[in-house]
Amino acid sequence: MTIRAKLYAALAVTVAGLLVTAGVGIWGMSRLGDRFDEVQRASEAQALALQLKFDVTDFNGWQTAYGYDNGQSRPIFLSSVERFRADLARARRRLTRPQEQTYLDQVEHAFNDFMRLDDQAYAALQAGEFETVKDIFLGPELVNFSRAAATSQRLASYEAGRVAVQDKAFKDARQDALRLLIAVSAISGLLVIILLITANDLARTAEGKLAGETRPD
Hints:
Number of helices: 5
Order of helices and strands: HHHHH
Low-confidence stretches: none
């Protein structure tokens, strides 16, 4: 093999090593980006579940309030109900896993039962049947609220578990990418050193041949 061929071979190997290093870096960043997106989606799902839990507590509190202030707080209660419905619809679109949909079904069923009794309670309030209102609010309506709140909490806990899993996967991917990048970088560095040594040896060989060719007979 000629000196030029040896040098080209060394250069090709070194360049290939650098390209592999760059490729590993790009792959690692892409994988980390995917993992981070999963963590973000899981965090958003958890936030949405917690919002549902807050909504349930909020409209229940305003229902109790309008029961005690002779209906003055009912418009606020109805606004809170509409906010819950909007958040529930948003959760339906975003939380599509079977377990998530099961929890949402349970929350919605409890909410529908809650609103059916609310109609009865408000009618009783307008009729001046305050004991009936109290019996509804402190009896079956409290049970419906507890069902919705407990299921919302289970949904939030489920999403928190997903956040933990995705966060661990992200950290593991980051460690794996870092270890692989260090290994490939070390190999590339070694190839550069080999290239330098090879170039130096080839230069000496070329100098020796040149000196032999120019030596007088």
